[in-house]
Model the fold of this input.
Amino acid sequence: MSTRILQQIIPSISTSDGAGVRLRRSIGQTQTVRVDPFLMLDEFSSINADDYIAGFPSHPHRGFETVTYILDGHMLHEDHLGNKGDLKSGGAQWMTAGRGIIHSEMPQQVSGRMRGFQLWVNLPAKDKMQPAGYQDVQAEEIPVFTLSNGGEVKVIAGTAKIAEQMIKGPIQGISAEVLMLDIRLPAGGEFAQALTSDHNAFIYGFEGDLLVGPADNQRVLATQSAGVLSTGDLVELKAGVQGSAFLLLAGRPLKEPIVQHGPFVMNTRAEIEQAIADYNNGRLV
Ligand code: CO
Done:
């Protein structure tokens, strides 16, 4: 067994996207800060409606997949296929843009906390032009495993082996074989998760400090930072004195060239020019 160490820390930066939604971007803050197959991770968290109310009006995507996970709040998704998804606290949404999707993501509340994440996962070249797909996941469909120390692990995507049990998340079939866990640990609580040894993985902390790595090589990951792990079979984690809440993400690296232009992520410049032309000519979807 080889235990992963915390190799690189990427503090999130404050930015805005859509029609002016305030968010924190870690992975994807520049086009060189990526963890193949992950292109981007945004955290939005605010109690101030002005930070989120404008939402993400109609916009296109091509060439990748997204997972949106809502902790607090209520968002409505609508796309050109006629899908309408009501994303509520604890729920998730998996969208495969494939050759093209045009959608909107709009908050359905005018006050209170809005908090959640959007993850962008690249598609391999062979899958980039597949038809768009969409799946809504309600909070009740996400399995929660309670740890002996009182902590909790939610399996959102992929299948996790926890305490010799295979826990299957509702999102299965992301091309890059993504594992997405929401983990909560009490103060000083420990947890170890088996990972596919050659998959890339990172942790995004959103509450409390977290110690990452084996006992003889631990590093602190502060909140609102992404911690990129080395390869290995296992990751060992320990919450700080405040307890800790974080996402653990792993996926198969695609090892393909990436050319990104805003919401289009392809392998070559020519494919990006085609995507822009298709969108301008109404032929994206
Ligand atoms: Co979008």
